[in-house]
Structure formats: structure tokens, C-alpha cells
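re: that chain from earlier
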Amino acid sequence: MNQTPPLISVVVPVRNGVATIQKCLDSLLRIEHPTFEVIVLDDGSTDATAPICESYAEVKVVRLEQGGPARARNIGIRLAAGEFIAFTDGDCIVDPTWLQNLHDGFLSAEVGGVGGDQRSPEDETKTGRLIQEFLKLVGFVGSYVKTGSAMMETDHNPTCNVMYRKTVLLETGGFDESLWPGEDVELDLRITRLGYKLMYNPAACVAHYRPSTYRGFARMFRRYGEAQGWLVRRYGPFRRIHYVPVAVIAALVTLAVLSAVNAWLALAVFLPWPLVAGWFYLSTTSLVKSLQFTSLLVVTLACWNVGFFKGIVEGRPAR
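^ sequence. v structure.
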């Protein structure tokens, strides 16, 4: 017997997304799924984002005073009529089969949420495309960008590409509105601690625009680090990436000891980087990219750790 497909609510928080929101909505309306609704939460935009969204008769648009994406998503949860709620962002373009592939990951009642893969949009900037390739190559220890090619269990799916059972979201109370970024990591932690599983299905794809400048990339990782520092202060370490600062401190202490013994030994800090560049070269077969990715890794580690220790010391959410 054929079962009626469940209604899925797609919730999209956006603020000042005039450059990409039309592409996002066009892709959502091309989704090949018989029963879904689209709810856009305009988080106090000061550009033409809201009028663009309101020009789509098929889209429900709610204008809000600025309160952050977590608050916007929580409002979307309350308004959603679907049994399942999918989230994406205003700077994402979804595949036509996106909803079906996310829904396919709900293999049992134990599965509370399912996420998917990210790639570069066709019109992505050169810098944004390079950043996406870098994130995909290193796998980003925090599991923001995954490298798996098969469906698997995971501990986190970013909210640019994820679907949850509405009952699970209501059971957890939704997103922590004091957090940004990191609110999706915190939500997934609470979901898994309730005993639910999270799945990753690489067939569920979104094209996600990345920062178009290196300064924007550095700022993004500083914010990520600060949010993770706050979460560790609150919950203790619970992800692999939370142990990176321990390795950094150990390396700095080792460097200090070596310098005290012999100033020349301090040069040991430079020894790993040719090996890193060599690995990037073997992975890309491009000398230029190997140097670019090595530089991006230095920026990633520096900015993320600066943000992390700031979050630990200040003990407040990143906003």
C-alpha cells in the first residue's frame, strides 16, 4: 500500500540576503516533492530581501525585528505545519531531490535528524570556490563539511542542510537563542543526549556560498572558534575539534622549552609545514593550491584558536 508522503516544512532564516535569496527561493520551488511548504523568516533586513520574498505567492514570509537566526528558526518551528522540518539558509541553493534525500535518512524512529552535503554554486566567486575545496579536502575536523560518500551516523549537521522530526525539536525546546554561531551544534548535542541518532546522507546536496574574501574567511573562523569555546565552557569538550587547543598549547610549551635549550631549536615550529604543503600537493597535484591551502590552514588554526580562547575566557555566547 502506498503511504501519503509527509508534509515537510522548509524554514529559511535570512537577513540582508538580497544577493542570493532569489536563487535560494527559485531552487526551493523546483523541489521534486509532492507535499512541502516554504516559510521565510526575514530577520530585520534593511535591504530589499523582504519584498523579494513576498513576491513569491507560494512562500509564507514573516517579517521580524532582528533577533538572530536561532530565534527566527524557533519561530519557524512554531509556525510549521509539517511532520518534518527542514532548514536551509538564504545563501544556499538546494537540489530538486533535496527533501526526498533528507527524508530517506530517517531509517527508524531513533533518527531525530538528517543532514547532507555541501558544494559550490555555479556562480561562486573564485575565492569562495577555493575555500569550499579547502574545507572539503581537510574535512574540517568539526564535521561542518563532511567527506563521506555513503549514508552514515554523525554527531552534527549544520543548519544550512538538515531536516528534523518536529516532535524532536519540540521535545528539545528548539535552538538556544543566545547563541550564534554554534546554535546548531548545541541543538544536536541535546538531541543526541536524549538518545536520538543523527544521520548524514551525501545525496542530499545544497550549494552554499562561501566568503568572497580572505578577511571574511578569517572572521568566520574566529566566530566559529568563539562559539565552540563558549560551548566547552558550558558543557565540557564533546567534539574532536575541542581538543585542538590542547595540541596548540602543547606545541607552544614544547617550542618554549626548545627555545630555552637552544634558540635554533625554535625553528622546529616550521618543520611540519613543508609536510602539510606536500600533502596538499599530493591531494591536488597543484603547487599553487598546495601553497594556498597551507596558508588557509594557518589562518584557520590561528583564528579559530583565538576565538576559542576568547569564548573560554569571557564565558559568553558569540553574537
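The chain has two domains: 8-210, 229-314.
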